[in-house]
Design brief:
alpha/beta, TIM Barrel, 12 helices, globular
Length: 299
């Protein structure tokens, strides 16, 4: 299985919605063009920043179809799976394959907190149901379920489980993922935007970075400068990005991302309720952070 395309900067793109919280086709096209023009190496549709949890199954399918159609082969498209039941995850995996996505990512089931063996069987069942490369998405802060290094090493032996996005924020865990799987061709990507460079130094292959929705060029520069051997330049770019990632606490997740893009004139619509925009005073703080990060903010 060719996994050479799994690398670089992959934004989990926001899903623009209209007043009825249906996918806004023109807004989605703007987002896809914005990040591709910014030099990203892939796109993740229906990630957590894509508000998959607030979309009906029909709207999720529209988001997948529209993203793949508009990306038009310019970059690989990954489809995120965040369902709880194994059979529903399998359904979405097969849908992604039907629409000719290049890969899928999958969260551990939320709310029910399965044990390690149940997690293994769940992930394996989904992988066995599709021919697409699959990446595990570890996000223990939000799900209260952690994919241990021992479990990941075992999963790495499933033929089409080919990588992991680690959003734990635990660099020791990321390093152990890499150490345990480094001889298996397994791909480890940073899921915390503050740890992109650190993950690359340890041997990771890139990142799934929310901030690449907003300032894709800056995030891409971390990756490209590192590959070019410009460690100092990569570090300065990582430091420049940090305040934007830390601004996530200006609102409820994932308000900051859409608010930032709207401030930039990308018109991605409102958040899916019950989440709403950041308070006005925090939007002003965000405006300044965007300018400092090099983003073009509308007046």
């Amino acid at each position: 299985m060719d996994t050479s395309f799994i690398r670089g900067v992959i934004p989990p793109i926001v899903t623009p919605v209209d007043a009825e919280e249906r996918v806004d086709e023109q807004g989605l096209k703007r987002v896809v063009d914005h990040v591709i023009d910014g030099g990203v190496h892939g796109i993740l549709a229906l990630g957590s920043n894509g508000e998959f949890f607030g979309l009906s199954s029909e709207e999720q399918e529209r988001a997948i179809a529209l993203t793949l159609k508009h990306a038009a082969g310019r970059v690989p498209v990954y489809v995120g799976i965040g369902a709880i039941a194994t059979r529903e995850c399998i359904r979405i995996a097969r849908l992604a394959e039907q629409y000719k996505a290049q890969a899928i990512t999958i969260l551990p089931p939320m709310f029910i907190a399965p044990n390690e063996e149940e997690l293994y069987q769940h992930f394996k069942a989904v992988a066995d149901a599709t021919s697409l490369p699959m990446l595990i998405y570890n996000n223990p802060d939000r799900l209260q379920v952690n994919v241990s290094a021992r479990l990941l090493e075992r999963l790495a032996d499933v033929p089409n489980i080919v990588g992991v996005k680690d959003s734990s924020g635990d660099l020791a865990l990321t390093a152990e993922y890499i150490m345990r799987t480094r001889d298996k061709g397994f791909k480890v990507l940073a899921g915390r935007d503050l740890l992109i460079l650190a993950t690359l130094v340890y041997g990771g292959v890139g990142c799934v970075a929310t901030t690449a929705n907003i300032v894709p060029e800056l995030v891409v520069s971390i990756y490209e400068r590192y590959l070019a051997g410009d460690l100092e330049g990569a570090r300065e770019a990582q430091f420049k990005l940090a305040p934007l990632r830390l601004a996530f606490n200006l609102g409820s997740f994932p308000a900051m991302t859409k608010d930032a893009m709207n401030l930039m004139g990308l018109e991605v619509g409102a958040l899916i309720k019950p989440i709403t925009s950041c308070p006005p005073e925090n939007l002003e703080k965000l405006r300044k952070i965007l300018v400092d990060a090099g983003a073009k903010v509308k007046r």
